[in-house]
Write a structure and sequence with these properties.
Low-confidence stretches: 159-163, 239-243
Number of helices: 4
Radius of gyration: 24 Å
Distance between the termini: 55 Å
Mean pLDDT: 77
Helix content: 10-25%
Shape: elongated
Largest sheet: 4 strands, antiparallel
Number of strands: 11
Strand order of the largest sheet: 1-2-3-4
Strand content: 35-45%
Order of helices and strands: HHEEEEHHEEEEEEE
Structural class: alpha+beta
Number of domains: 2
Length: 248
């Protein structure tokens, strides 16, 4: 009986200690920001209904991904990412094994050369050796999204002058691509979206073994009013949790 009472007293003491620590932190925070202006109703509503911008004039550097083809023997698909006028980025999308569904950049190409013309020559040489993919109607699949996590990034200093009082909204956005008729390959991934959690199923490419690769566009660049970014999702018959946010 005494042991039960001792445990009860210990638990109550820990709860009281935690409550006291929270109160101390709240008082310290209030003292630190005692001269700061109170947030206005306009600012609060603005955070819920609009977005902040990183810059007034943003250069259109949206990311666009395409599938070059499949190396069946290696079990990978090669994905090309175009980033405005910058050098393209080549990824391997693993179709099998422990990395199935993951995008892995070809680091070796960029470690030995930073010449844009050399990279494009390598791409042109690689493309004819790959098994081509075929575009199939995207209407056979549906895209559903779910916000896994909400965050806010507040810019301070001269760089944040144009943003006013509003933070930049940041989301961990889960994308799930499933067949309309329930039967068929499906896949999912989680990406980092900025400003607004919007995504769109843009294209689907079919593979020879009945699997597919989907391209999803979302607001992934917090510049200007938000520029688009692509990710590709491997659609397989088995249940899988894929990770396709290559540059988050």
């Amino acid at each position: 009986m005494s042991a039960v009472n001792r445990d009860t007293k210990t638990s109550a003491a820990l709860i009281a200690l935690a409550r006291n620590r929270r109160m101390q932190r709240a008082m310290a925070h209030a003292s630190l920001h005692r001269n700061a202006p109170m947030p206005t109703l306009r600012s609060s509503l603005g955070y819920m209904t609009t977005t902040a911008r990183v810059a007034d004039d943003a250069v259109a550097l949206g990311h666009r991904m395409t599938v070059l083809g499949v190396a069946r023997f290696d079990g990978v698909a090669y994905v090309l990412e175009e980033i405005g006028d910058d050098s393209p980025v080549i990824y391997r999308l693993h179709l099998r094994g422990p990395r199935q569904g993951h995008l892995v950049p070809l680091h070796a190409w960029y470690e030995h050369s930073d010449d844009d013309n050399d990279l494009r020559r390598r791409i042109a040489k690689l493309a004819p050796t790959l098994e081509p993919v075929r575009a199939i109607p995207r209407e056979a699949w549906m895209l559903s999204t779910r916000i896994v996590q909400r965050r806010a990034l507040r810019i301070t200093g001269p760089a944040g002058t144009a943003c006013g009082d509003l933070p930049i909204r940041k989301f961990a956005l889960q994308l799930v691509v499933e067949p309309i008729n329930v039967l068929g390959p499906s896949g999912r991934t989680t990406v980092t979206a900025f400003l607004q959690p919007h995504a769109q199923l843009a294209e689907v490419w079919g593979l020879s073994d009945g699997e597919a690769i989907a391209r999803v566009t979302y607001t992934g660049i917090p510049s200007g009013t938000g520029l688009t970014k692509d990710t590709v999702i491997l659609l397989t018959s088995g249940l899988s949790m894929l990770s396709g946010d290559s540059a988050a």
